């Protein structure tokens, strides 16, 4: 099975996928990988689902290439911008990109919160979740917001994505108190 990356209006990924589901021959072919992020509003933290690749939808195609009717259906669907790398000559995502996409799709429709620990040198160690095996791509860790910013290279573009995490048993160096107590004292 091949996957094609389709750029759509940012924020309209789900609506585009729903519209594609009504096109004959394209039923349940549009995939919108999502991530769960802890969002704090009004003093309360809750997990929200957001697209993992904002502005992109991935089409699963069995035959190996998009036929003329499928390309026309894409172009005439509202919120469509272009098919990567070119609308006139769309190509499936490369093997490296397909592996990255499969990594996130292996967690189901939503890449949930990862479980992490910090070692004695305050380096993040991922125990389980979507961040597993992506430690080398982590650019920044925000302990207060419980997010890790990772650099993904997809479809010949490089961009940053935030993924949420939960700290299993973090202790501050030398203080003997955990991170939650530290943040209340500051």
Number of strands: 12
Distance between the termini: 52 Å
For the largest beta sheet, what order do the strands appear in spatially? 9-8-12-11-10
Instruction: Spell out the CATH superfamily of the largest domain.
Output: NusG, N-terminal domain
Percentage of residues in helical conformation:
10-25%
Order of helices and strands: EHEEEEHEHEEEEEEH
Q: For the report, how would you describe the main beta sheet?
A: 5 strands, mixed
- List low-confidence stretches: 172-186
Number of domains: 2
Q: What CATH architecture of the largest domain would you give?
A: 2-Layer Sandwich
The CATH class of the largest domain turns out to be: Alpha Beta
SSE-based structural type: alpha+beta
Describe the global form: elongated
CATH fold descriptor of the largest domain: Alpha-Beta Plaits
Taken as a percent bin, the fraction of beta residues is 35-45%
Mean pLDDT: 82
Number of helices: 4
Radius of gyration: 19 Å
What does this structure look like?
- By secondary structure, the protein is of the alpha+beta class.
- The chain has 2 domains: 1-107, 2-Layer Sandwich (Alpha-Beta Plaits); 113-186, no CATH class.
- 19% of the residues lie in helices and 38% in strands.
- The chain has helices at 13-21, 68-76, 95-105, 179-185, and strands at residues 2-8, 30-31, 34-41, 44-51, 56-61, 80-83, 110-111, 114-118, 124-128, 138-142, 147-154, 157-167.
- It has a 5-stranded mixed beta sheet, covered by helices on one side.
- Residues 172-186 have low confidence and may be disordered.
